[in-house]
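Pipeline run #58 for the internal structure catalog. This entry was flagged by the ingest filter as a single-chain record with no existing model, so it goes straight to prediction. Upstream metadata was stripped on purpose; only the residue string is passed forward. Reviewer on rotation: M.T. Logging verbosity set to normal.
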Amino acid sequence: MPVTHRRDGATAYVTLDFPPVNAIGRETRQGLIDALDWVEAQDGLERVILSGAGRAFAAGADAREFDGPALAPHLPDVVNRIEACEVPWIAAVRGPALGGGCELMLACRYRIAAPDATVGLPETTLGVVPGAGGTQRLPRLVGLAAALDLIPAGKTLPGAQALAIGLVDELADDPLFAAQEVNHEHLATRVPVGDLPNPPRDAAAFNAARDLIERKFRGQIAPATAVDLIHWATEKPLAEGMATEREQFLRLRQGAQAKALRHIFFAERGAKVPAALAGAKAAEIASAAVVGGGTMGAGIAYALLNAGISVVLLETDAAGVARAEANVEKIVAASLKRGLIDEAGAAKRRAAFTASDDYTAAKGCDIAIEAAFESMEVKRAVFEKLEAALRPDAVLATNTSYLDVNEIAGVLADPSRLVGLHFFAPAHIMKLLEIVRGDASADTALATGFALAKRLRKLPVLAGVCDGFIG
């Protein structure tokens, strides 16, 4: 059963149970309708607690349904019934409450999240907009500025940040227990989100949002449509705004951009760590050395900084160090200009970055990634220095695009430390990462490459040593 329900005294429990992430497909929507029918037939209930089984509340719609016609029951109808139910619902959120899961949460009278919760409406990243009231309820709850920041970009928030903006009402280590403790009289007086007033209009805020989207999401339809729908939330009644939102959702999900993004989504989900590496333990990466401060090396360094990894960039001399610092700073400045990071984020990245022409500066690093000139002689010399400078358990990686990884490894006393990590330029943007297995590459080193790829939000592909690898 994708949805279960039970009663304990004056409390009803409705649980989403559709592993692995409680996606809200047709069966789950029907299960919620059945649960609503059951709740409405009960006498003496004071609350309904909605939660998710396992590690997720609900990680959005089942995107596999998007290529066909919309199937009843439809999520907007489910959400509206939860909000209109005479018995108030409480969302007890662990793990992701994304997309439709967030819209279910917004329909509840009270929302409690665990610190590990992740909340938001990321639909624009799949080329669509929220389709069950998200663009209409969220601005009413958290205000225009927060809604314009979150919905068009498809941003998600951890539990503490969701609490800070008013998206959830309470943070608790055990949301289910906390939901049982909510005062009944207080719960009964809570105003449904859909009944909250329209947020005030702010032409300047909308102009700024559209300017940002033009810079950050040039050519993408969904983010701009999301801004238009949020504008509706400042002017129209909930029902009218939801009807327009639904029309746009159904239109966009059949569009070329959404279909292409869904194809990418499922392709990336299918890219997994090879079964042969399932038992291998990846090294913990807190700091990394990057050799070479050109376009590729600077991009790799910035990708690492984005993931919260401190970086030591190694060059051959003082002039090279200065060029490397300038190249990384260009990326920081460009990210600031495009709105990808704020001043605090830029400062954090700058503080975690150093450049040096002394290899001993990298002696404490957990991994070293070589992005030097494509010369076997140069690369072998680099790895001799790296092996001498770094700890024996540090992973070594070459970014070579075509040289023989085995020949490079031959210069090392312990060639099992070496793998290929072939990034594509610009390395902080392009998602593909070839992980090249040499003849001597240890499973631990390879597993570290896959773990790092995940942390960098790259798409890892295992390759062997051959001309050109895969890309």
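catalog note: The two ends are 44 Å apart (CA to CA).
catalog note: Residues 173 and 219 are 42 Å apart (CA to CA).
status: ready for reviewer M.T.
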